[in-house]
């Protein structure tokens, strides 16, 4: 069943159920109220008859009559005055025989008049009331009864039944039922209209969400579902909008990475094709003795260099994948970072001098760092070589600082610098800030900084970069201290 019809049934059914319940309750309340009013009137008639009986018994004109005769006379007088109201009196003696009216046959009273339970209650002095579907004659007619017990000197004398057709009850109830039925029909129509309105509004919002979902499925991540923050539908719309934003960002990132991958495949193919072509050409030359004997050693050296380039390119790719997938383990230990960096600068000084650069270690005192020694060296080598690659006749400075719970190392250069877009993308795999230099001696693959970032991540450290075009670049690497050392420092502060 469609959601629209479900809502119509839910809203409409609920409203109709409420109206039906209220209608029945009101009808029953009205009926009970009218019946209670009838009972009060009938009991009032009985009291009037009792007063008449008392008055006649004291009248000297009736001294020769028995109490039973006076009682019947009083009943007759009272009944005569109420003839127009349709009031009827029936007197039943202690033996459950009808004594009045005299035209009635004596004997047991018909069960529809006084039941056994009612008779027991009457003998106990309790008044009874009832609305029956039959009158005193046993005919089909809705009739109200009031039953009043009479006692003479404390002895049960009999029961006076006062009856009256309950036409006012049936007429009033039927009128109310007819009016309620009309109101029910009108209310049902209104309920259906209102339910349809609310249901269509909800269905519209659902269809809007469905349409937006189809748009997303078709690849359109710019779709936005209106949100007024009113109910759960709006909460769902808000979640949907956040999802589309996330999907768009993911899609953009996938496209960026795909472009990087395509660029890398092109670069890698070029990088590999060039040395392979060189090696193949040299081998063919040597095969057909096309290379002079005095040039053979130089050709072999060239083939070795090109082979080393290929091996380095493959190894960098393998290293990156191992690091990224946590397939390598690191051995953390404390060592002198100042000494390690000083050694690296000495080893890289020849490369720096070839570019006219000056390497400077700005820290002299020994500073300890908690890291894997080999991976620490790999990070520093990549960053320093990167600085040499993009600096010409400049300065490359390394500063080591001991922080409260970590060791900070800054590598600053006075090279060509980078734009904001370049800074944003340098951590991407295969990205090269200066494509024109992709064939230089130290920048073959574009994987160096990606490897650095992953290695720092394995140390639970951080790496940041700040750069300005034509002014230089600064890399800041932070290695956290050994956990035990951090805890000891905190305990000393507390003490």
TrEMBL record:
HAMP domain sequence ranges: 200-252
Domain of life: Bacteria
InterPro entries named in the record: HAMP_dom, HATPase_C_sf, HATPase_dom, His_kinase_dom, HisK_dim/P_dom, HisK_dim/P_sf, Sig_transdc_His_kin-like_C
EC numbers for this chain: 2.7.13.3
Record carries keyword Hydrolase: no
Domain Histidine kinase: 267-483
CDD domains reported for this sequence: HAMP, HATPase, HisKA
GO MF entry, a single one: histidine phosphotransfer kinase activity
Enzyme class, broadest EC rank: transferase
Protein name listed in UniProt: histidine kinase
Residues in coiled coil: 240-267
């Amino acid at each position: 069943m469609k959601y629209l019809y479900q809502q119509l049934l839910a809203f409409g059914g609920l409203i109709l159920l409420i109206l039906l319940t209220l209608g029945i309750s009101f009808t029953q309340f009205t009926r009970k109220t009218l019946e209670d009013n009838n009972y009060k009137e009938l009991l009032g008639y009985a009291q009037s008859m009792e007063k008449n009986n008392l008055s006649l018994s004291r009248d000297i004109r009736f001294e020769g009559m028995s109490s039973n005769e006076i009682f019947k006379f009083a009943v007759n007088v009272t009944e005569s005055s109420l003839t127009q109201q349709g009031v009827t009196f029936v007197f039943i003696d202690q033996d459950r025989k009808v004594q009045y009216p005299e035209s009635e046959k004596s004997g047991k009273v018909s069960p529809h008049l006084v039941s056994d339970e009612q008779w027991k209650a009457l003998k106990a002095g309790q008044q009874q009331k009832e609305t029956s579907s039959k009158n005193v004659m046993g005919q089909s007619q809705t009739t109200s009864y009031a039953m009043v017990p009479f006692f003479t000197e404390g002895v049960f004398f009999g029961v006076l039944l006062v009856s009256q057709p309950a036409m006012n009850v049936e007429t009033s109830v039927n009128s109310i039922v007819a009016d309620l039925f009309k109101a029910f029909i009108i209310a049902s129509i209104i309920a259906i209209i209102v339910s349809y309105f609310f249901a269509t509004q909800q269905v519209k919002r659902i269809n809007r969400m469905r349409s937006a979902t189809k748009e997303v499925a078709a690849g359109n991540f710019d779709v936005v579902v209106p949100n007024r923050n009113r109910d759960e539908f709006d909460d769902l719309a808000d979640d949907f909008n956040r999802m589309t934003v996330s999907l768009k960002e993911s899609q953009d990132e996938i496209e960026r990475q795909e472009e990087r991958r395509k660029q890398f495949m092109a670069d890698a193919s070029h990088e590999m094709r060039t040395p392979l072509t060189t090696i193949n050409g040299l081998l063919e030359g040597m095969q057909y003795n096309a290379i002079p004997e005095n040039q053979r050693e130089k050709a072999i050296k060239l083939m070795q260099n090109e082979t080393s380039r290929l091996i380095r390119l493959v190894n960098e790719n393998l290293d990156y994948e191992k690091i990224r997938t946590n397939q390598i383990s690191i051995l953390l230990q404390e060592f002198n970072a100042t000494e390690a960096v000083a050694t690296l600068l000495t080893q890289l000084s020849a490369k720096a001098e070839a570019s006219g650069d000056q390497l400077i270690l700005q820290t002299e005192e020994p500073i300890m760092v908690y890291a894997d020694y080999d991976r620490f060296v790999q990070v520093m080598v990549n960053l320093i070589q990167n600085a040499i690659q993009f600096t010409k006749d400049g300065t490359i400075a390394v500063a080591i600082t001991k922080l409260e719970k970590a060791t900070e190392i800054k590598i600053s250069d006075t090279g060509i610098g980078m734009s904001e877009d370049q800074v944003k993308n340098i951590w991407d795999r295969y990205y090269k800030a200066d494509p024109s230099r992709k064939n230089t001696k130290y920048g073959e693959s574009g994987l160096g900084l990606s490897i650095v970032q992953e290695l720092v991540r394995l140390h639970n450290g951080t790496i940041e970069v700040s750069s300005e075009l034509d002014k230089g670049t600064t890399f800041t690497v932070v290695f956290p201290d050994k956990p035990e050392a951090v805890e000891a420092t905190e305990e000393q502060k507390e003490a």
